[in-house]
Amino acid sequence: MIILGIDTALRCTGYGVVDFTTADRIRALDCGVIKTKASAPHSECLRRLAGGMRELVEKYHPNVAVLESAFYQKNIKTAMILSYARGAVMTVFAENNIPMYAYAPTKAKLSVCGNGAASKDQVAYLIAGRLGLNVKDMPLDSSDALALAICHGQIATSPMSQHLMPESI
């Protein structure tokens, strides 16, 4: 199963693509970030984000996409901007009939680190070790995306975990 994990943000979205067979057979296909300059208008950020997602879909043909679940923001403007980015990403997946799932960051961290409060650095080191990647070549946002992909793969491929599978979004 090819899983595309996405850690959505407006100016720096992390992505990670894994080929997940079993919890013991996971292969990283790609990871990185889609960045846009801080001076770029929101419309340009959204255009680049959607374009980047289309390229990943065309290149890897994922069976499923996994996003970080929406979370409560104290600042409504920040929440709206993040929602724009999630909408741009989700639209690309919907256009390509790719099922989408969302997990809380704490659930993804718990899944790969055994600690839902793990730091970004801890997630990166554990992901790099598990997938045979050089942690210095892996942006932190992409390690979060890989954690989301692995979390979903573990739940989706384990008969004992089927009850933990969220509804698709």
What is the percent of helical residues?
Answer: 40-55%
Low-confidence residue ranges: none
Which structural category do the helix and sheet elements fall into?
alpha/beta
Categorize the overall geometry.
globular
Which CATH C-level class is it?
Alpha Beta
Radius of gyration: 15 Å
Please name the CATH topology.
Nucleotidyltransferase, domain 5
Q: How much of the polypeptide forms β-strand, as a percent range?
A: 15-25%
**The CATH homology group name:** Ribonuclease H-like superfamily/Ribonuclease H
How much is the average pLDDT? Answer: 92
The main pleated sheet reads as: 5 strands, mixed
What's the structural domain tally?
1
Give the strand order, joined by hyphens, for the main sheet.
3-2-1-4-5
Instruction: Enumerate how many helices there are, as a single number.
Output: 5
CATH architecture: 2-Layer Sandwich
Number of strands: 5
Order of helices and strands: EEEHEHEHHH
Separation of the first and last Cα atoms: 18 Å
Task: Tell me what the structure shows.
This protein is α/β, with parallel strands linked by helices. The chain has one domain (2-164): Ribonuclease H-like superfamily/Ribonuclease H (Nucleotidyltransferase, domain 5). The chain contains 5 helices and 5 strands, in the order E-E-E-H-E-H-E-H-H-H. Strands 3-2-1-4-5 form a 5-stranded mixed beta sheet, with helices on both faces. Strand 4, helix 2 (76-95) and strand 5 (100-103) form a beta-alpha-beta unit. Helix 3 packs across helix 5 (140-157). The longest helix has 20 residues, at 76-95. The radius of gyration is 15 Å and the shape is globular. The chain starts with a strand and ends in a 12-residue tail after the last helix. The model has no long low-confidence stretch (mean pLDDT 92).
